[in-house]
C-alpha cells in the first residue's frame, strides 16, 4: 500500500510569506476585548500560540461601530484600538510569528444593543434572523430586524473595510502587504456590488510578514 505523508510540519510558501509549518491558529472569537478594545492579556494569549514561522489569524475584529454583534469583541477602527493591538502584534512578531488580522462586519447578526444609538443593524436584506443559541450553549442571541442598505450606502461599508485594513497594516508596519490588501478590497467591492447575500463579511490582512 502506498504510504501517505502528511506534511504538517513541513514549510509552506503562502504568497510572500514563508511558513515554517502548516499548523495555523484559526480565528477564534474570545470576547475579552472590553469596550471593543483588545486588552493586555491578549499579548500573552497570542504569543503563547506563536511559533517561529507559524501563521496566526486573529479573532474576528470589527471594522466600524456598526460591525459588532457579539459582546466584548475587538475592533480596529479607532486610534485607541489600533494602539491596543500594537503590543499584541509586537509580541507575536518577537517570536517570529506571522499574524493576520481577520476583519469583519456582522451585518444582521446583531441587535439594537450593539448598534450606535440603538439603531437597526445594517444588512443587504431587511429580513430578520431567528433567535439562536449562543456558542456557550446557554445564552440565546436575539437579532433585531435589520435595515437594508441603499446601494449608495454600500460604499461606506467598503470604506470602513479599507480603513480597517490600513489600520491593520499600520499595526504591522509593513508596506509589502499593501498590494495584497488592495487586491482583497477590490474583491470585496465586487462582492458588495453584486449584493452578496452573506451578512457577514470577512477579510484577512497580514499585520506583518516575518
Ligand atoms: C469559540 C469559537 C470562536 C470562533 N471564532 C471565529 C472567528 O472569530 N472567526 C472565524 O472565522 N471563525 C471562528 N470560529 C471558527 C473556527 O475558526 C473554526 O473554523 C471552526 O472551529 C472549525 O474548525 P474545527 O473543525 O477545527 O473546529 C470560531 C469557533 C469557535 C469554536
TrEMBL record:
This protein's name: NADH:flavin oxidoreductase/NADH oxidase N-terminal domain-containing protein
Domain of life: Eukaryota
Family: Belongs to the NADH:flavin oxidoreductase/NADH oxidase family.
Species in which this protein is naturally found: Nelumbo nucifera
Upper lineage: Eukaryota, Viridiplantae, Streptophyta, Embryophyta, Tracheophyta
Domain NADH:flavin oxidoreductase/NADH oxidase N-terminal: 8-172
Keywords of the record: Flavoprotein, FMN, NADP
Pfam families, A to Z: Oxidored_FMN (PF00724)
Record carries keyword Flavoprotein: yes
Gene3D superfamilies: Aldolase class I (3.20.20.70)
GO molecular function: FMN binding; oxidoreductase activity
Required cofactor names: FMN
Amino acid at each position: 500500500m502506498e504510504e501517505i505523508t502528511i506534511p504538517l510540519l513541513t514549510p509552506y510558501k503562502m504568497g510572500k510569506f514563508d511558513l515554517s509549518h502548516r499548523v495555523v491558529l484559526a480565528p477564534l472569537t474570545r470576547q475579552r476585548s472590553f469596550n471593543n478594545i483588545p486588552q493586555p492579556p491578549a499579548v500573552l494569549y497570542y504569543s503563547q500560540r506563536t511559533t517561529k514561522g507559524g501563521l496566526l489569524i486573529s479573532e474576528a475584529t470589527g471594522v466600524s461601530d456598526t460591525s459588532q454583534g457579539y459582546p466584548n469583541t475587538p475592533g480596529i477602527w479607532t486610534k485607541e484600538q489600533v494602539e491596543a493591538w500594537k503590543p499584541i502584534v509586537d509580541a507575536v512578531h518577537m517570536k517570529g510569528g506571522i499574524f493576520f488580522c481577520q476583519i469583519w462586519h456582522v451585518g444582521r447578526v446583531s441587535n439594537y444593543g450593539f448598534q450606535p444609538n440603538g439603531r437597526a443593524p445594517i444588512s443587504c436584506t431587511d429580513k430578520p434572523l431567528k433567535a439562536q443559541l449562543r456558542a456557550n450553549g446557554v445564552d440565546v442571541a436575539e437579532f433585531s430586524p435589520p435595515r437594508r442598505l441603499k446601494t449608495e450606502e454600500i460604499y461606506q461599508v467598503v470604506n470602513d473595510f479599507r480603513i480597517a485594513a490600513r489600520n491593520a497594516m499600520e499595526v504591522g508596519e509593513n508596506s509589502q502587504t499593501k498590494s495584497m490588501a488592495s487586491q482583497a478590497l477590490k474583491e470585496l467591492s465586487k462582492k458588495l456590488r453584486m449584493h452578496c447575500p452573506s451578512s457577514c463579511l470577512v477579510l484577512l490582512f497580514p499585520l506583518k510578514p516575518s
